[in-house]
Structure formats: C-alpha cells, structure tokens
Amino acid sequence: MHDKQVGLEIPRDERDGSFTSESVAELIRRVMVEKEGESIRSNAWAMKEIFGNVELNKHCLDEFYRVLETWPNST
What is the largest distance, in Å, between two alpha-carbon atoms of the chain? Predict the structure, then answer.
C-alpha cells in the first residue's frame, strides 16, 4: 500500500519482523490526523471507489472464473 501511496509502511525489526505499538500509533496519527497524510487519505478514498464497487468486483471475479475454466489442462 505504501508504493500505491495509500498507506505508510510500519518500520520492522530486521531480525524478526516485529514492530512496536508505538510505531503503529505514530503512523496512524500521521495518516489520519496530520497534514502529511492528506494525499494518502485522498488516494485511499479514490481506491475505495474501485474496491468498494460490488458490481465491478463481481465482474472481475466472473471473468477470472471464466479464464480458469477455459485454461488448458497441463496434464
């Protein structure tokens, strides 16, 4: 989501991939409250129009299912 500019990546411990509750809280505050997060919030609302569209999602799933059904068997 970070690459799509709709979120920020939480810094993780390089050894085990863990993160702290403080770092999560800080990023939530930056995205949801601070001016820095305005573009992220705007991009997230734009993405909502795509991912929140039930008809579009149904169409995409139907098309994916059709492709899987017609895919040639490898055996």
Answer: 56
Give the model's pLDDT for residue 20: 94
CA-only gyration radius of the chain, Å: 19
Q: Are 74 and 68 in contact (CB under 8 A)?
A: no
- d(Cα 8, Cα 5) in Å, to the nearest integer? 8
C-alpha–C-alpha distance, residues 7 and 12, integer Å? 15
| pLDDT per residue of the chain (75 residues) written in tens, 0 to 9 | 667 788 888 999 999 999 999 999 999 999 999 998 999 999 888 888 888 889 999 999 999 999 998 888 644
Amino acid at 12: R
Residues 6+ apart with CB under 8 A from 48: none
Placement of tokens 């993405």 in the chain: 47
